């Protein structure tokens, strides 16, 4: 019995063959057209399989291709998660041989706002996504509309996330609890905030900040002018939060479903994430509130995918939103070994419109980042990995970055307990010992 998919492709290519079209190298143009049609048709079959929740999701070869703007470690781990599902990944990144290049099908070397490069990416993909907020939302919106290649999460969400002030306003309007905040036009606005909120306050660059960059604590009115100059751009100011701990929830928005991972506790040093402990050492009531906030955030966000939702647990037991990343997040890396389905596989499933997997915790898990403990940039070499490789439950992830820089994220180590009832404290102690055993060669 003939397959409708084969009949459709066959009819089109027969008509095309009748034109006698030849490529400049003498090959038949219809052969490449047929290959593209096959991939597009497979994608339509796969998508149709999940539009109806009672239908089966069918895997075929070739499978769908995801185009990823950004080729850092997140793109690398996304490609690693996609491969077992028969999904191919093409990345776009300005750095040749970026971390994702060895595991992706291909890399397009182009800037994150390079429209020609993103158009090429769209031509080779069934859906576009991004692993870095530097992706240009206007370009992606335009390319998506012109090529009919969907983008998830939507460019409108990327636009909201880009500007922290816009982000906070939209979330506050939706009832998501956030710290008191206001826009900053000049140093007097900071001084007024200190009058209203008390000192210190947190001055934040509205765009471009990550890993603590662009965040400046202002201890007094006398420091307002210097703090504003250090941000060097549009800014906002927030009340300083007296928090018990910083936590995060990795949340997933699918086609007709959502999911949240267990709450993680994040430990920062110099504003950079050092380790994530799962489950967080929070009360059950706080964990429930954190998941409720995460679900409310997903209602505001437009488009499928994984969202990293950073939160404050206050000393009063409240949960306040800090920031959102519309992509897999550093504080979710533990899920590769520690959860039934990793955040990266969930992102693949979500952007393709496939059913989401279980987010259940396998056992208490700690992720610790391997940060460049160097004073200046140099070729990357890591010593002391034997102890990690020999430890049961430990997993080493090396991102393949050629150069190590001070506090650069070069990799991470995950340690999972062998017993689901084990103490997170015991796992944390073991993870810290493993992290201390490695060093970047001097």
UniProtKB/TrEMBL annotation:
GO molecular-function terms, A-Z: 5-(carboxyamino)imidazole ribonucleotide synthase activity; ATP binding; metal ion binding; phosphoribosylaminoimidazole carboxylase activity
Designated name of the protein: N5-carboxyaminoimidazole ribonucleotide synthase
Gene: purK
Keywords: ATP-binding, Ligase, Magnesium, Nucleotide-binding, Purine biosynthesis
Function comment: Catalyzes the ATP-dependent conversion of 5-aminoimidazole ribonucleotide (AIR) and HCO(3)(-) to N5-carboxyaminoimidazole ribonucleotide (N5-CAIR).
Recorded metabolic or biological pathway in which this protein acts: Purine metabolism; IMP biosynthesis via de novo pathway; 5-amino-1-(5-phospho-D-ribosyl)imidazole-4-carboxylate from 5-amino-1-(5-phospho-D-ribosyl)imidazole (N5-CAIR route): step 1/2
A Pfam family it matches: RS_preATP-grasp-like
Top-level EC class as recorded in UniProt: ligase
Annotated binding of ATP, by residue: 164, 204, 238-241, 246, 268, 322-323
NCBIfam families per UniProt: PRK06019.1-1, PRK06019.1-5, purK
Assembly notes: Homodimer.
Entry EC no(s): 6.3.4.18
Reactions the enzyme catalyzes: 5-amino-1-(5-phospho-beta-D-ribosyl)imidazole + hydrogencarbonate + ATP = 5-carboxyamino-1-(5-phospho-D-ribosyl)imidazole + ADP + phosphate + 2 H(+)
HAMAP family (UniProt xref): PurK
UniProt feature coiled coil, ranges: none
Organism: Natrinema altunense (strain JCM 12890 / CGMCC 1.3731 / AJ2)
One GO-annotated biological process of the protein: 'de novo' IMP biosynthetic process
All copies of domain ATP-grasp, residue ranges: 168-352
Stored SUPFAM superfamilies: Glutathione synthetase ATP-binding domain-like, PreATP-grasp domain, Rudiment single hybrid motif
Keyword Transmembrane: no
Family membership noted in the UniProt record: Belongs to the PurK/PurT family.
